[in-house]
Amino acid sequence: MQNQYDPRTTGVNPTVSVGVPRAARDAGLRSYMLSVYNYMASGVLLTGIVALLFANSGLAAQVLVTPLRWLIILAPLGFVMAMSFGLNRMSTATLQGLFWAFAVAMGLSMSSIFLVYTGVSIARSAG
Q: Around 78, how many Cα atoms within 13 Å sit in the side-chain half-sphere?
């Protein structure tokens, strides 16, 4: 049985595909994926900083006992739905802005973790 994806049987040169050398394709993919990982790591860092600052400010303890806590808890879900449903209609800048707003909303939502657990136990679970 012939494997249609095996370059040895299809006559396609494995080092060149669609006019782009494999090394250039790999470098471009690596650069793109590195930028994606950097965005995600920056978002996680922003989330953690916002959560820590909001919890340490004392505002989280006051706000999370009011009905406003539901807005804070459900806001990240709203951002995810807005980004998912508007993906094809929104510009890149709008989606990036929503991503950063999502990271902040997620930090506000996760600030209760700092109210319940100690910093040492949070650091141990992250490592």
A: 10
